[in-house]
Amino acid sequence: MKKIISLSIVFLLIVSCGKDLPMSTFDTYGPIAEEQAFLFSIIFWAGMVVLVAVEAAIIYIYFKYRRRKNSNRKAAQFHGNTKLEILWTILPVVFLAVVSVPVLSAIWNFGTMPENPAVVVNVKGHQYWFEFEYPDLDVVTANELHIPVGKQVLINLDSNNVLHSFWIPKIAGKTDIIPNQGNQMWIQADHTGLYYGQCAEFCGESHALMRFKVIVDTDEDFATWIDHQKTEAYVPNDPLEKEGYTIFMSAKAGCGGCHMINGSKKAKGKIGPNLTHVGSRQHLASGIMENTQDNLRQWIKDPGKIKPGNIMASQGAVYMDPNKALTDSEVIALASYLQSLK
Fold this sequence. Notes:
Layout lengths: L1 H14 L15 H34 L17 H30 L7 E8 L2 E6 L4 E4 L1 E5 L4 E7 L4 E5 L3 E6 L5 E5 L5 E7 L11 E7 L1 H12 L8 H11 L33 E2 L4 E2 L2 H9 L1 H4 L4 H5 L1 H4 L7 H13 L2
């Protein structure tokens, strides 16, 4: 049984290091991730050299000086060897000094923010979602970060609740978000595509569900996305969507008290994500569900079941007061309206 458990652990360790996994740090797509992977390789192989050398010395000594059968000879007693002691003091110092060169270089590179970044993004960690503000572009969105390919992006990190950590494994390593203190990092993605991100600091019961996506666009696609994000929200014409709009803006549902919809006089909330173009996002609930009509209905109906501890479920009037609970038809209408916000 112990052998089976040991082999299972070894197997899990091996498969967890595959480059094809969506959050593998070995499959790099940016200079920061590449340097971090290179640094890991140096430290890993340096450690392996030390491990092999020490283990080889132990095995050699074990066989060389083991007690022979039928031998009454007493083992020789040694009380020090000056040359050996100097050697095994100097060698590790030299070894660490050599390894420290790329380490210090990487630390300096990671910590030196670009003077003229192509894009600046203010990232705020909430429980349990990320807010993305582009201060120079007048855009605010949530959980899906768009950046242009091959450009340096400055990330300003902050939180007004608990510790979080911003992590995009294939583009850059994790950086802690400290409440009301601020922190910075910079990223660059050298290939277009979709990349996965995750909060990497335990922040509550739905910490594992605090995910986000990074969409790396061409310059043209990024400019188009920014222009679209600046537009006001779609005004529905369909009867079902109109009904959902009325519910969203009503005092009973109270959605506008927590969510912002650009162009609306009633939806000015900043507690929850900006929903101006929520229908155009690929995922819901901080990256854990595809943005489909069915998933959106499930989320509206019972967000606490999908993501325990989230503020929407614990503070929303329609979830706390049975008399204000949404009917199935109201959920359908509300989901239709939100899906229309492309």
